[in-house]
Amino acid sequence: MSKNSKSKNLSRRQFITKAGTGAVGSYVLFPTIVKSNKSLNHSGEEITNLKGDTDLSLNVNGKNIKTKVNANTTLVELLRDHLNLTGTKVACNNGECGSCSVLLDGKVVYSCHMLALDAQGKSVTTVEGLMEGNNLSIVQETFIEKDGLQCGFCTPGQVIAATALLNKNPNPTMDEVKEGMAGNLCRCGAYPKIIDSVLAAAEKLKS
Amino acid sequence: MRNFKYLQPENLKESVGALSEKSIPYSGGTDILGLLKNNIISPTELVNLKNIDDLDKIEQISNGIKIGALTKLADIAENDLVRNKFTALAQAAEQVGTPQLRNVGTLGGNIAQRPRCWYYRGDFDCLKKGGDICYAEIGQNKYHAIIGGGPCHIVHPSDTAVALLALNAKLTTLSPKGEKKIPLKDFFILPEIDQTVENILSPDEIITHIEIPFPSSNSKSGYIKSMERGAWDFAVASVAAVIDHNNGKINSGKITFGGVAPIPWHEEELDNSLKGVSLSSESLIQLSKYALKKADPLEHNEYKINLTRGLLVELLSNLVG
Amino acid sequence: MNRKIIKSKSYLYDEKIESIAEVPEKELESLPLNKDLKFIGKAIPRVDGEEKVSGTAVFTFDKTFTNIAHAKTLRSPYPFAKIMSIDISKAKKVNGVLKIITNENSPEIEWYGDYSKLFDQTVRYEGDEVAFIVAETEDIAEKALSLIEVNYKELDFVTNTLESIKDSSPKIYNKSNIPDPGGHANYSRGNYEEGIKYSDVVIEREYSTQVAIHNPLEPHCTITKWEDDELIIWDSTQAVFSVRDAIASRLKIPASKVRVIKEYMGGGFGAKLEAGKYSVMAALAAREIKRPVKVVLDRREMNLAVGNRPDSQQKITAGAKKDGTLMALGLTSHGGMGAYPAGTYVHWPLRSLYKCDNIESNEYRTFINAGRARPFRAPGHVQGTFALESILDDLAEKIEMDPLEFRKKNFTSIDQDSKLPYTSKKLMEAYDAGAKAINWNNRKPAGTIEGVIKRGLGLASQIWWGGGSPPAYATVKMNRDGSVQVLCGSQDLGTGTYTIIAQVTAEVLEIPIESINVLIGDTQATPYAPSSGGSTTAPSITPAVYDGSLQIKKKLIAGASAIMELPTDELSYSQGKISEKKNKDNFLTNSQIIRKIRERVLVATGARNQNTDKYAINTFGVQFADVEVNTLTGKVTVNKIVAAHDIGRTLNRQTLENQFHGGVMMGLGYALMEERIIDEYTGKVLTTNIHDYKMATMKDTPDIDVIIVSETDPLVSAVGVKGIGEPAMIPTPGAIANAIYNAIGVRINSLPITPDKIITALNNRG
Predict the structure, then answer these.
(1) Which of C463, B276, B234, C58 is nearest to A156 (CA)?
(2) Nearest CB to B131 within list A22, A94, A107
(3) Alpha carbon of C217 to those of A98, A153, B68, C46, C272: distances in Å?
(4) Does A90 touch chain B (CB under 8 A)?
(5) pTM for the structure as a whole
(6) Residue B309: helix, strand or coil by DSSP?
(7) pLDDT per residue as tens digits for the range B53-96
(8) Quick one: angle between helices C755-765 and B303-320, nearest 10?
(9) C699 and chain B in contact, CB less than 8 A
(10) Going by DSSP bridges, is the β-strand pair B206-213/B170-175 parallel, antiparallel, or unpaired?
(11) A111 vs B contacts (CB less than 8 Å)
């Protein structure tokens, strides 16, 4: 089984020495999770006097927003740090877990793995935007009823993904729920009850 | 993530004009943002292609289908024409990442994405990044190449490219020098030619379209992928196949492999041995033994040979069953 | 409120604890069975559900202040090195940098006992702390980090457990990597050699389990804020009081001046049971810059530096008689605890799960140049149970006995150590209920299934403590309007602590859940409750809540008695009213009574009872797995898990099922995909994100059937509840591994069981 044909010319000691040198040169810093916390008003009026190198207009939860951002600002940074919409979470900051899920023109996307400028001219819906006034949406309500959550950190993303799924497919099978929600990790492992929640929400939405 | 300029050209010509050594074409961004966050690349400009019209369309042409390079993977997976006539591509697209990634990621980006090797993506000054060593050669190489590797041992991570190769796709690219048509088989390059890149695109060149000819009317195609969990995993190994069969025997076909080599992998001898193979599981198992015969695995990835052969048998059984 | 001070025994993880605690003088009357209750046992929606689904729940990760500063940590890129010098001059000049701390300007603060310091001059794993930068924004802090120039002298390192014990391997502390004392644990009973000698069949097997990372989705994070000489810390923690005490002692300030608050937290699984270095660093910096400081670890740091389930390399010898009597079990195991001391022992299941008179176990834990282990959901038991239950299946096969029969044959109704009976052990009932639900009778002998896709069944049993213990307190306050606050020093990790506290209070006082407000996770506002670990939260705190609520009821009755001038035994309490038994129309509401008493708030603090010393307190269960294995591609699909357990009383059917699902999912991930992988040539971790470190997704979710065979366990407490968080996960990997064996007839003795191992094993068999 064990086979090492390609490394015969490289002794282990040499390898370590070289590897060590390599590591110095390329030491990569840990990536950012959250940037500044300057909280800015998002009353729906134009926002001005923002620092940033590029203009950005978009609609967030029904409000038109005009602002400036640095090009490297991610969408979730805009939402959380600039617009104070902290319902959307960040857990991996690399498009791997779904805690940052939002709707972009109705489709579910990872807001941590997208530039704010990618939302130029588009509509963003966050978990806060699912509320109808002070009322929970049917999907949100059903997550409470069916206990589709534990610690709650991934929950805003799950609720968003479920909403997108049901918008597209109002009558999903269990397998379609699993497929449609596969981009949202829940480390607490509440999956069975999240599935129940989505299926029950589909039933409710039909009536 | 370091800052950069975000250029927003309005048309193809401007886009290509804006590209240089210091810039990078940017659309879905699912791969590029990872590279930027991990400081693997540090362009000073991102050239946003999303404002270009008509590069996200799927259209039927006389002899096949033409897909804009900016078409989202989700749209490809759900397109009826693709599902019916180019099933392997639809199946490959729907197994990429997660719904969120497929809603954003594009076909062009999926073909041109960079490898997922954990040394390349991690804190290692590896060969591909201009260093002296391929750490995978004697390190943790369970997911690395079993064929075509050396001096760098990455596997190409694309699902769709494997399907497109089986379907004889052709790329259209554009650079300031003009338009080019490149058969997909000539697009990828092995590390022994140049280990720092995976394809022949120059820095000022982008993929604009992918054209696929209709497969023969009595053929079927499919794509199968091995992952270590139910979703969000790159192919440990994958197989695409286009098979023409009748009366219980294969007439002809084309088989390609992913997750095994630094490029989507194709073995002509294997295709040649397809003719006349009967569709019983014994003969399919026998056939699969002709695949990857020249594999030269590393310390931890010999299993990929049997895995890939197993996938081939499963895929062919599904296709002809 | 009559109390006494006693000594009470319990287990927290594998540590036997004798606590001196204040407990109620008299035993409280046990709660009736759930069928006679209104709130307890019902599927009551979580009281914090609305905040969580609406995004309004503020996690530590979300909290901020207008003048907050942000910090990042520079971590060692090397597994083992000496810091020769650190030059921060360039970093300091970055606009917006507020403070930099390194070993050159930090106060000397011990960490990991006396093994290291807050900032050490030697770094012993990739990710060890080197410098801490506070800046206006996280981006600035990060940019400045890259400008710190550290001159490291690299040292020879070792990251592999079995390598680390060789004489020739690099030594992390200039002496054996197995510390003495502390690196070796021996346990024996009976006569192991004799047991083997009189066995009809003896087998020996080696098992290997991987390093797993907790990876809660909310990263470790903290905010420290000074208000004059008082330090307030918002921490994503499972243990507000132990974080408070650890930080107070490190900073040499009175614990009374430190307030630790945890409101919502996004998962811990054991990784958040201790104070982080980052909290102390942030507190030091915040004091100097006179601004609050926030630290959020990123996913890479989460995978390097805040704990793991250590590996285990186990060799087990097992002997049995042909009639199925388990004669002897011997274990030698090694575990790599990381660069600093941590627990790794795995022998408890082998020692306690079955009747076996002859046991010999030797365990070693060793230093390696990798991130330090921390408790992780049933530490040791998950690894130990996988190995034990695998070898028992092999043994059962050798003596041609059904694996379930073999386990029943070796069932014990008394604790094998203390020889005490259990407060409750309904494992036999669990076996029967679980076997029925999985159709165990359909199980075929291993390796006899035809076809490419083979289906198999397997089982594994579980023992854990989870009885809880004193000290734990809860203060119940009833206001003039009859509404109630409950204050408790516990934490809700997503387990539903808020909800079960409200349910117990509502049950006793017969008032609506909505009129109860629960405050937990604040050292300044609440009485003491233990850390949320070891499946002890519900069994420790709900009896205290029960006691406090009963006391309030007693006070109300005494008040009514004085007002109505009737003896208390002529009064009855029902639904927030006290009425004369003979004349129901003569009544006072709770609110009327409190108004008359003139106290604006009735207050009572309840306490957890003493643990019995006449019985052993444990939880038991069995899980059955139904799996399919594709023998061509090595793909494993778990179709179904049946989890049948004895856990005392069910407090909330919905949150209970949810926790069982979570335990099973985590067990499934551990069995099939999770693994931290280190490059042995550089000592660097390769799985630093969460697609390389693979956790189960919704697509991996099987059908999970939760069966609770117990109604209550009144010998534990008047509430009769035991913990479930850990029992839920312990047997899952063993059950899945046994089902895989049953399907394919080839054993895979190392976790995770990934497709490559299955293909290789099948290939080697030919």
Answers:
(1) C58
(2) A22
(3) 10, 7, 37, 20, 12
(4) no
(5) 0.95
(6) helix
(7) 889 999 999 999 999 999 999 999 999 999 999 999 999 999 99
(8) 100
(9) yes
(10) antiparallel
(11) none
